[in-house]
Structure formats: structure tokens, C-alpha cells
Amino acid sequence: MDFPVSVTNKNITHSKPNISVNFPHITNLPHSLTEKKINGDIVSLLNNMLIEQGFYNEFLEEMIGTYEIKTNERNILSLSLTVYSFTGGAHGLTITKSLTFDVMTGKQYSLKDLFNPNSNYVEKLSQIISMKIEAWEVPLLEDFTTIRPDQDYYLADHTIVIYFQLYEITPYVYGFPYFPIPIKSIEDIIRTEGPLNTLLTF
To answer: Are strands 153-156 and 159-163 parallel, antiparallel or unpaired?
Structure first.
């Protein structure tokens, strides 16, 4: 099944407080259990994000949730969920998280799953990001040393995009720091049976 999967929109709405959360729902997969697992993983992550963003906070005034499909081809689905909330103060807060799946098996890929064992992927990706930070003159809260082994990422076209949350490495006004890395530039460490190789060899 190399064609894109079907994605429909679901939403959670409430007038007081003002809540409007949209999220993706995957349909028409060949295997119903795989479809159920993927949708369950999406809802599970979204629930955690909503709670973190104060869904049950009595001071919640506004919450907006959106999503983006980053890759939907060759049995790979990569997407991002974003939730903004405002509970008072100078400004609201936004978090974004991503999920990457094999739509045939339902397997969800963490960052380490994309690379060969013992490939030192953390060190290699961190070096690339360090160079981009310097070249782009990204303002930092403190010196950048390394990504987390489970750093946030998504896949788009022939690129892996490593990113950080607000305040994680940069001031709030900078927004989310995104660092796209061409898969071709790191092909020596990618896992042969993983999604990076699938996107690279087409």
C-alpha cells in the first residue's frame, strides 16, 4: 500500500472556556487493528498534551489545537499535533509533538528507531544542529551541547526535522527552533529497514 492513507478531521469544541481542538483520524487501512492502534496512539498523545496545557485548569480561557500531516506516502505517516492554551498572564503557551508510523504494521518510531544501533546518532545529529545554530545565529538561553535521545522530530519529503519546544533552548520570542537535515547527509547511520531508508531510496 504505497498510496496515501485517508485522514479525516475530528474535533473537540466547547464555548466556555473557548476550546477548539482539531485532530486527525486515520481511516480505510487494510488492517482494522493497525488502524485502531494508530488512532489510539494519536488520541493518547493528544490527551497528554491537553492535560499538560491545562484542559482541566479552572483558569483556562482559551485552547486551540491543530495538526499537520508532514509525510503520507510509501507506508509512512508522520504528523504533528499543536496545542495552544491561555490561562492568563502575558501570553499563552504552545506545545507541539509529532508521531511517525508504519501504516502497515502500526509501529510508532521514536528517534532511536531510525538509526543503526551503536551509531552515535545523538552525537552526530547534535554536531549538525550545532553548526546550523552557529550559521543561522540562533539566540540561545545557554550553550547548546546535545539533543535528547528522544528529541522531537518529524519526517517531511527527504528530510528529518529535529525541533525543540518553546524555552527548551531559545527564548520564547524565537518560537520553535526547527532544524531540517537531509536524509542523504546521514545515510551512513540510518537503519536499513526503517522509514528514513524508505524515503531515501525512492
So the answer is: antiparallel
Q: pTM here?
A: 0.94
What string of pLDDT tens digits covers the 202 residues of the chain? Answer: 566 899 999 999 998 889 999 999 999 998 999 999 999 999 999 999 999 999 999 899 999 999 999 999 999 999 999 999 998 877 889 999 999 999 999 999 999 999 999 899 999 999 999 999 999 999 999 999 999 999 999 999 899 999 999 999 999 999 999 999 999 999 999 999 999 999 987 5
Dig out the grid coordinates for 124 from the structure: 552526530
Strand order, beta sheet including 159-163: 153-156, 159-163, 178-182
Beta strand ranges found along 15-136 (DSSP E) = 18-27, 62-73, 76-86, 93-102
Residue 40, phi-psi category: left (phi > 0), alpha (psi -120 to 50), beta (remainder): alpha
